[in-house]
Known about the structure:
Layout: E1 8-11, E2 17-20, E3 23-25, H1 33-43, E4 50-51, H2 52-60, H3 68-89, E5 96-100, E6 103-107, E7 112-114, H4 115-128, H5 132-145, H6 158-184, H7 188-201, H8 207-217, H9 221-238, H10 245-252, H11 267-279, H12 281-288, E8 298-299, H13 302-318, E9 323-331, H14 344-358, E10 364-368, E11 372-378, H15 385-398, E12 404-407, E13 413-414
Parallel strand pairs: 1-7, 8-10
Antiparallel strand pairs: 1-2, 2-3, 4-6, 5-6, 9-11, 9-12, 9-13, 10-11
Amino acid sequence: MAMTDKTLRIQLLGGFSMYYGDEALALNKTGGSKSIRLLQMLLLSLAGGIPKGELLDSLYGWNEKTDTANRNKNLNNLIYRLKGQLMSAGLPDDDYVEIREGRCCFKSRLPLVLDTQQFEAAMEKARTEKDSDRRMSLFDTANGMYRGELLPSNLSEMWFFQKSIYYKELYLETIRELEQEFRRKRDYKNLIRIYTRAASIYPFENWQTRLIRCNLDIYRYDEALEIYNDTMELYAREMGTPPTAEMQECFEAVELMDKIHTRSQSAAGFREMDRAFMEKKDDIKNAIFSERDVQGAYYCTYPSFVDYCRLVARAKARSEFPAVLMFLTLSEKGRKENQKQINLQEQMGLLKKVIGDSLRLGDAYTRYGNRHFILMLTRTVEDSCVEIFRRIETAYLDKFGKGNLWYYTDLTQKLDGAAL
């Protein structure tokens, strides 16, 4: 069958997709996930192919007792299956995989474009460019080509993880080059742009700290506060921990500027800063005291929850009253028939509202990780927790909750100074 002039375009950074001309290819993965991995390994080894032994070890594991002939037979069957998958997806008839001199190679007469190759080529061009402005433009172009980790669904496998490290290092190089130039020019707009992008790709690698600092440098306090709060919520929700100490220190170091936005240490400068602070009093009051009627328990992020518990423990030293920490988990276990219908984020949102409505005004609670809530119950004894749990569970089920709710009696404990 004659080849067409259509190009086969493949994305490997940030996910896996294939386009033949303008048509997206949907590979049938039923029983063929190993064949997709074979294809991905070959595409990442286009220059000289991949040693057959390395391919076999990655796909089938290595063991001295493994039957080599059987592994070779399995690989041949896998290659045949992959060819069928590619043709069924809409590609023309071709060999696609070739084994020669102990190496496996991707073989096709189609014009082929890989985002990884384009990214590497852009980096090489930027590194060798002599003109400063043109060099920065090329690094900026390369930065935009990186759409995320290499094949993120494969990162649990060492072969792909090592390749991913290589491409990540190239991406970090673009940031180092760009931020040095942008800082020299005080180009905060573009600094914010590249940091925002880095934070979206790697949300748990502290890029938000640099983003906050950039916003503070150009007096965008509201934006800095929003980034900090969003990051606290993200860390509490996904990891059950506060952001890094560096990020918290960064935000706590916010300085009030005078009206002309200078950091003057003179008496006049401090008077201007004091005047600016006084003008903020209504904003501060409105942020703390709500004008509407307050009902239900107080929900806060995990770092704020820790501070609140410490405050309660201190208050107990002056005026003794009972306070209890209670731990809840939402689980899908025991409801296998409904698992496909359960949306964990949706159910956690429902449970969050139910807990708030079921507790008293002086209680507080927070989300800890993907499936957990911690409750701080004031003027409550441990023996009352069973009743409180039943009240929450009943309200959750009445709202058509689809998960199972668990109460950890062995974790629940009285709140005192020693516990903190």
